[in-house]
Specification:
Elements lengths: L1 H24 E5 L2 E4 H13 L9 H20 L6 H26 L4 H14 L3 E10 L2 H12 L4 H8 L3 H4 L4 E6 L5 H8 L11 E3 L2 E12 L5 H27 L4
Protein name: peptidylprolyl isomerase
Pfam families: Rotamase (PF00639)
GO molecular function: peptidyl-prolyl cis-trans isomerase activity
């Protein structure tokens, strides 16, 4: 008799465990339909990728979100939304986007940027930027007479930074007293860089410098050897750049190899 009672209790416990196991796999049951917990996990991953990591305190909100989506989806199905042409088109576009993203992610995994490629790209950048850097200020105006007047005022003792703040049409540098920061000559338009490198430290261009942007009055504040980041500092940016270049070439090769009629 005792054995039969134990068996009955065991059976009851086992039956009771089945819903618990199912519940552990689901976030909720909405109108009799299971909402897999995997949806919460996937949504959390998406939020994290967008810069909004999900904390344990946010789990109830996440659960409510997937429940609401299921409620709305069920109602949309009742109304036949999933039978419309627009729905089918959007589903196909979403399917394509997911497949393409998977294709590109798989390519990146199987074609990683190597340390040798990073070193080669870094060496190339060092060779191209191992010269001098210039710290200059400028005042940009629309007409040559305006620029000539500014040069005349500077010769009389006017303050370069004050004029830049008040008159320069380059509002970005103007707000900083005309300061352009450190830059290589090659990063500036040719007319500007040629006039700048001809100056000695502290000198201002004696005549206006015309470029496609207008007329410049340039003052050279300082010169130094180019300051380049170390390889390890630049590596993340180089890897990202090379990875994108590889992916671009892969995309181009697929398009070139496709038979389009």
């Amino acid at each position: 008799m005792k054995k039969q009672i134990l068996q009955a209790v065991a059976a009851t416990v086992f039956v009771g465990l089945v819903p618990l196991a199912a519940l552990a796999q689901n976030a909720a049951i909405v109108n009799g339909k299971a909402v897999p917990k995997a949806r919460m996990d996937s949504l959390a991953t998406q939020l994290a990728a967008a810069g909004r990591p999900v904390t344990p305190e946010m789990q109830p909100q996440l659960r409510e979100e997937v429940i609401l989506r299921e409620v709305f989806m069920q109602e949309a199905q009742k109304q036949g939304i999933d039978k419309t042409d627009d729905y089918k088109t959007q589903i196909e576009l979403a399917r394509q986007a997911i497949m393409i993203r998977g294709l590109f992610e798989n390519y990146r995994k199987t074609n990683p940027v190597t340390d040798a490629e990073v070193q080669a790209e870094y060496d190339k950048a060092v060779a191209a930027n191992s010269g001098k850097e210039y710290k200059a200020r400028h005042i940009l105006v629309k007409t040559e007479p305006d620029a000539k007047k500014i040069i005349a005022d500077l010769k009389k003792g006017a303050n370069f930074e004050d004029i830049a703040k008040k008159q320069s049409t380059d509002k970005g540098s103007g707000a900083q007293g005309g300061d352009l920061g450190w830059a290589s000559a090659s990063s500036l338009v040719p007319e500007f860089s040629q006039a700048m490198i001809a100056l000695k430290k502290g000198e201002t261009t004696p005549t206006p410098v015309k470029t496609e942007y207008g007329y410049h009055v340039i003052r050279l504040d300082d010169v130094r050897q180019a300051q380049l980041p170390k390889l390890e500092e630049a590596k993340p940016q180089i890897v990202q750049q090379l990875s994108q270049q590889k992916l671009q070439k892969y995309q181009e090769s697929l398009r070139a190899g496709a038979k389009v009629e």
